[in-house]
Amino acid sequence: MATIYIDGNPYQVKDGDNLLSACLSLGFNLTYFCWHPALHSVGACRQCAIVRYRDENDTRGRIVMACMEQVADQARISLEAPEAKQFRAQNIESLMINHPHDCPVCDEGGECHLQDMTVMSGHNYRRYRFKKRTHLNQYLGPFLHHEMNRCIQCYRCVRFYNDYAEGKDFGVFAAHDDVYFGRFEPGVLENEFSGNLVEVCPTGVFTDKTLRKHYTRKWDLTNAPSICQQCGLGCNIIASERYGSLRRILSRYNGDVNGYFICDRGRFGYEYVNSERRIPHALKQEPAGNWQGLKKEIAIREIRDRIRAARKVIGIGSPRASLESNFLLRELVGADQFYAGIPEQEAKLIKEVLHILRHSGVRTPSLKETESYDAIFVLGEDVTNTAPMLALSLRQAAKNQPKEKARALKIADWNDAAIREVIQGQKGPLFIAAPSATRLDDAALATLQAHPDEIAKTGFAVAHQLDASAQGAELSASTEDFARRVAEALLAAKKPLVVAGTSLYSQAIIHAAANVAMALKKAGKDVGLFYTVPEVNSMGLMMMTDQYLEQAFHQVSSGEADMAIVVENDLYRRMPAHIVDAFFQKAKTVVVLDAIAHRTGERAHFVLPAGTFAEASGTVVNNEGRAQRFFQVYQPRNDIQSSWKWLQALAADDQLAVANLDEVISRLIACYPELEGIREAAPDARFRVGTQKIPREPHRYSGRTAMLAHIQVSEPKPPEDPDSPLSFTMEGYVGTPPAPLTPFFWSPGWNSVQAINKFQIEVGGPLHGGNPGKRLIEAAQQASMPYFTDVPPAVQQQADSWSIWPAYHIFGSDELSALSAPLQERMPASYLALSPADAKALQLQPGNSVEVNFHGQAIRFPIIIKPDLPGGYALVPKGWEATAGWIFPVQSTLKPVQA
């Protein structure tokens, strides 16, 4: 620590930091634009001017930029010196010369960093009376609205998009005094993290186009802390509502998970919450095709009667349902009748991941921690499309070894401009082995495209090179060379990281990754092992049961069970249609609880409207085993409610009588002591600051009476929330709540998302009270498992039979976000991908079609040719309607279709 003097007063700050970060961490208000905690310093905007003195005898000092000045012990600075204050005010005046006077109609109004800094600097009157410079705006795709006239040339956008996210289709263009930020021509921004420009931009240049379609002033939104539901990483988000519809998603800072950013699927994939396919009321279908709406009480009574009359009732859970909903389903039907709603193949892979994380002796880092590793081996995962924010983290990790050059020159880590000058685009040791080229390949030092079995063998070969006692594998000369390079780089690194996952449905890949990590651990390395899983609560679900979907179907087909309750699961996406059809033919009664109408609901006898993350509260467990709580954003004005509340109501004789979510958690922990930590994921419903709850609405919230005037002139009583310490009002504690309960970031003078600084112990560090979430899994200190030996045999292609594997897409492969209109504009059409050699052998050209035989059903796919595919297998998009229910890999002939 160092002691610095600010306006004559001593303060303890972190040695080596820059003065802007140090001042903000101490709670001072100092204006800035170009600096960002994740992007660091370049000194472009000249807005953080302070006076720095040589010593205590210096009375004049000199003006410096705080973001470019390193903390030094006994340094003396002034924020309040008249010349510094004048400089900051005049600098903003110059930045505002061409800025339009459109705050009342600007999308960013009321949540604008430029507004905050202008007020903070003291500039309040425009003297410029001449013509302003203006620009034409660009179409940038379905996610972002572009308003270039609001730009103040802070360069944050290009620094995030080009330097941090490493996008290639966005830049800055300039001629004399005319600077333009955009694309070389109008078009869709291709980078998967472009939506972060909404929060990175300090003005209204880049705003959320999905919010713009149903715009609401930011202070009129009801907000809640939530968890992104669109993959297994569990990124933290803020969900916002107005008039009973979800209006936007923002990143919610968590220093252990997603930091400041989220991917575009998580940010813009929320529109399914407002979909016309939502189920608002209970439905009954008897006879088939004859649907009728039921009152909530009647539906509950009729389903209770069916449960009592049933021979046996089974429950089918879901990896997209909360722990609480899955648990109360288990309690309703009995532990022996509760089944994970996923196929055995997928379930066993997740079980194996859990086993390895617990017993391999290798620690699983948090998502944010992956940025600290200096050599990475990605085995089999296209992480940009299966776990997008991991790809963004790995891009930062790949820069760590090149940054050592800058550290050797004593360049501080925060000095972004100097570091980039030294590195000159050099790549660090990131190695990727995948079935085809990935979006992360441009950051990699070397890549390998191969059959999934060959990828697994490559992993085993790397482990063998690290430790001769590990099982090896025979490889081709080129693949052997790749494995050798990987092994050498991992062994030379200080902190190597191994990444794998379940996307290719290969246990051998999961085992190969574990072998590599255990071999590095044995070599004395501080190694991390990071597995991705498919869905938001895949890990939590598999901590609760060892029974799978095939067993559930067997219970019905054998006649042992005649009733099933399915919670938040479309079975037609899990298993082949003919198997699910047989299940419905044998089941006497099927009850479905879900938010969205789908094929499973269409075949059910009863459908109950379950809440999405916007209308429900619960707990989920991410890929690292971190339990995190999401909270209801608003109370819907229909029958929609949390699945666990429906299940509680369906139980007879107060079997599942619980007062609130906390009681469900207590019962859950009693059954699963290893889940004890979920109690610490967030404060319980009794938590108060003094006597006050935490308001979901900011204190500037307006229109509470007017928005319901068409129903009732007087303002109705706000709904109660028995499940959390949050209120559905603007009344309550105004201050810094516990991190898991923070519904929005606001502080006096800080209306934009930059207010996060006020909620952190130090800028860019943990939130006050610690980052949200509780890890449930920690690796044993000593490995208790031997090396795995299940090396796949050599790949043998059968005559006239092709192995077909899944290809993942950030926009489309996730079930729910694929229903959002903005994402649908980015989804590719269905296809079957072949290598050029295979296409030539089949006499196929791009645009031709082939038929795939899947369980007797002929499915037609247009052909695309991928030069990066090595051949011998084909790829189809996972999650598309044409591939719904496929159990990969699929073996089939490829029959050319005549035009």
Return the average pLDDT rounded to an integer.
95
Kindly report the spatial arrangement of strands forming the biggest sheet.
14-13-24-23-22-15-16
Architecture of the largest domain, CATH level 2?
Answer: 3-Layer(aba) Sandwich
Number of separate helices? 25
Largest sheet: 7 strands, mixed
**Total strand count, please?**
36
Overall structural domain count: 5
Shape assignment: globular
Query: Which parts are unreliable, with pLDDT below 50 for 5 consecutive residues or more?
Result: none
Q: Structural class given helices, strands, pairing?
A: alpha/beta
Q: In angstroms, what is the radius of gyration?
A: 28 Å
Highest CATH level, the class of the largest domain: Alpha Beta
From the N-terminal CA to the C-terminal CA, the straight-line distance is 73 Å
- The helical percent reads 25-40%
Strand content: 15-25%
CATH topology of the largest domain: the name is: Rossmann fold
